[in-house]
């Protein structure tokens, strides 16, 4: 897989498959010795109930578990490339989320919006716990809410399933919804701005550190989630 830009490295990586993630990392390490910025931007939103290849609920599996595995497998490269940054794309939807301790995989009950909110909350808990683990390494990690951006991630939303609804959303894009170019700006700020060289473990909205939900401040839940994520990805060395 090649791009038309010599500065763009393009390789397949399916976040719904842990094997694909491991294959990508193996290939990346063969071809590159440094990694200065990792932006975890893959996402699924409000999809019908489905599972990753490992049997993990799709939104939680892609939005959190996939990024958890990818990031951990690339940490050694990030550490030898310092200063380096990790940026996790979260959402204001995390404020509606709760980590379902007794049904993390949504096996008992699946509601698309609830599952999405849980995955976005997991992004922030992961960010905070990883920041603690990376103190003193020269690798920082922050989360960012880019805003509502017009991408294919909205394709499963009910309003988008109707022709009139899709037309309405498309028509109002310039008022309420960001273009991909504008949606990328908050992400690039967190990834590149020199003022954030020593900032880690925070959540950004509109280029400023923002408040997170009480659930996202729960250190015990963050540690529990980390342990479960290690188990589900067979990792335990970070």
UniProtKB/TrEMBL annotation:
- The organism's superkingdom is given as Eukaryota
| Single GO term (MF) | oxidoreductase activity
Q: What does the UniProt keyword field contain?
A: Oxidoreductase
Q: Name one Pfam family in it.
A: adh_short
Q: Which family does it belong to?
A: Belongs to the short-chain dehydrogenases/reductases (SDR) family.
Entry protein name = Retinol dehydrogenase 13
Organism (species): Melipona bicolor
């Amino acid at each position: 897989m090649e791009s038309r830009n010599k500065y763009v490295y393009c390789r397949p990586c399916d976040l719904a498959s842990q094997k694909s993630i491991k294959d990508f990392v193996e290939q990346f390490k063969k071809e590159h010795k440094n990694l200065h910025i990792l932006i975890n931007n893959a996402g699924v939103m409000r999809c019908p109930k489905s599972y990753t290849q490992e049997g993990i609920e799709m939104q939680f599996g892609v939005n959190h578990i996939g990024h958890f595995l990818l990031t951990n497998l690339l940490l050694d490269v990030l550490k030898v490339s310092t200063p380096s940054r990790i940026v996790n794309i979260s959402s204001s939807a995390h404020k509606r989320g709760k980590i379902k301790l007794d049904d993390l995989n949504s096996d008992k009950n699946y509601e698309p919006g609830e599952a999405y909110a849980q995955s976005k909350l997991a992004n922030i808990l992961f960010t905070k716990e990883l920041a603690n683990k990376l103190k003193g390494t020269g690798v920082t990690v922050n989360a960012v809410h880019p805003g509502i951006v017009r991408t294919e991630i909205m394709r499963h939303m009910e309003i988008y399933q109707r022709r009139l609804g899709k037309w309405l959303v498309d028509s109002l894009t310039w008022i309420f919804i960001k273009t991909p170019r504008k949606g990328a700006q908050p992400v690039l700020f967190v990834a590149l701005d020199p003022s954030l060289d020593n900032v880690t473990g925070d959540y950004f909205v509109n280029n400023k550190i923002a408040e997170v939900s009480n659930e996202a401040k729960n250190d015990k839940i963050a540690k529990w989630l980390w342990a479960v994520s290690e188990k589900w990805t067979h990792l335990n060395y970070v």
